[in-house]
């Protein structure tokens, strides 16, 4: 079985659906955002960056 680009996306989609870790979901989202620059840039600036800042500040306060 040869693995093509399409089959990798299908495998990643299946992993995300079945919940094999949040890392694959983030990886899949980054690939999607890089595929569409204008919509991806808007999405990153409005959702992902504020979410990352909230999670990192929560993580820092939780570690204390």
What does this structure look like?
Helix 1 crosses helix 2 and helix 2 (22-35) runs antiparallel to helix 3. With 64 residues, the protein is mostly helical. The radius of gyration is 15 Å and the shape is flat. It has one domain (5-63). The protein starts with a helix and ends with a helix. The chain has helices at 5-18, 22-35, 37-63. Helices cover 86% and strands 0% of the residues. The longest helix is centred in the C-terminal third of the chain and has 27 residues, at 37-63.
Give the key terms.
86% helix, 3 helices, single chain, 64 residues, mainly alpha, flat
Q: What letter string, H or E per element, gives the SSE order? A: HHH
Radius of gyration: 15 Å
Low-confidence stretches: none
Give the CA-CA distance, first to last residue: 49 Å
Biggest beta sheet attributes = none
Q: Level of helix content?
A: over 70%
What proportion strand? under 5%
What's the number of domains? Answer: 1
Number of helices: 3
User: Which structural category do the helix and sheet elements fall into?
Assistant: mainly alpha
Say how many strands there are. Answer: 0
Please, what is the average pLDDT? 72
Q: Given the C-alpha coordinates, what overall shape results?
A: flat
Transmembrane segments: 7-31
Keywords: Membrane, Transmembrane, Transmembrane helix
In short:
The chain crosses the membrane at residues 7-31. Keywords: Membrane, Transmembrane, Transmembrane helix. The chain has 64 residues and is mostly helical.
What's the helix and strand layout?
Blueprint: H1 5-18, H2 22-35, H3 37-63
């Amino acid at each position: 079985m040869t693995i093509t680009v399409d089959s990798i996306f299908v495998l990643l989609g299946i992993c995300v659906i079945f919940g094999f870790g949040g890392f694959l979901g983030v990886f899949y989202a980054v690939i999607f955002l890089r595929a569409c620059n204008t919509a991806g840039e808007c999405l990153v600036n409005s959702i992902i960056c504020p979410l990352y800042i909230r999670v990192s500040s929560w993580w820092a306060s939780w570690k204390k």
